[in-house]
Amino acid sequence: MATTADISRGLIVKLDGSLYKVVEYGENKTARAAAKVWAKLTGVDNNRSIEKTWNSGETIYPVRVERKAYQFLYKDDSGYNFMDNETFEQIIVQEALIDAPGFLKDGQEVSVLMNTETDLPMSVELPDKIVLLVTYSEPGMRGDTATRTLKPATVETGATVNVPLFVNEGELIRVNTKTGEYVERVKEA
Predict the structure, then answer these.
(1) pLDDT at 189 (0 to 100)
(2) Which of 20, 40, 80, 163 has the smallest count of CB within 10 Å of its CB?
(3) d(CA 40, CA 157)
């Protein structure tokens, strides 16, 4: 059995029949009352975000999660299709379980969090930063670099990213998949 002392960021717990991921946690201690442990939780199998408070030492129910490497194959009417890199088995995942579906490109490697109790995928995480090709962007004005002015650019996956004025069509850029923001321009190898 796990207790509130085992809470950590990223831990997935079962609470009221649903699964939640710990985003942030802390402890409140007072001189008169017993310590309390609080956590901000995000739903894994639902779209809810909640806060929960327990008495210190109270029992929690963590869920065993396994992180596996999968490769994105294609998207069709049934969902997003991924292939296990070790066993070559394919799974179909719904868009709601993918953290940044707009940045998925064919053949990209992702991490799939599998619930070991049910062997079902719980979420799909892309790498923090990925390199994408700019397929469309308005040309920037020469000499207009004094301010951090951004312009929209369409990347190879169809997503739109705000980029600096000097980024042009046909260039590679690095994008943060968690925020959807431009990071830097990438030189071709």
Answers:
(1) 55
(2) 40
(3) 32
- Which domains, from first to last, does the chain contain? 2-60 (2.30.30.30), 65-125 (2.40.50.140), 129-186 (2.40.50.140)
Mean pLDDT of 171-186: 90
DSSP 62-108: B--EEEEEEEEEEEETTEEEEEETTT--EEEE-GGGBS-GGG--TT-
Q: Tokens at residue 27, please?
A: 């402890």
Instruction: Provide the 3-class DSSP secondary structure of residue 167.
Output: coil
Give pTM, 2 decimals. 0.72
The secondary structure element, H or E, covering residue 176 is: strand 172-176
**pLDDT (tens digit per residue) in 62-71:** 888 888 999 9
Opening angle at CA 97, ends 96 and 101, nearest 5: 75
- Give the alpha-carbon dihedral of 182, 40, 125, 45, to 10 degrees: -130
Can you tell me which residue has the tokens 């806060």?
A: 51
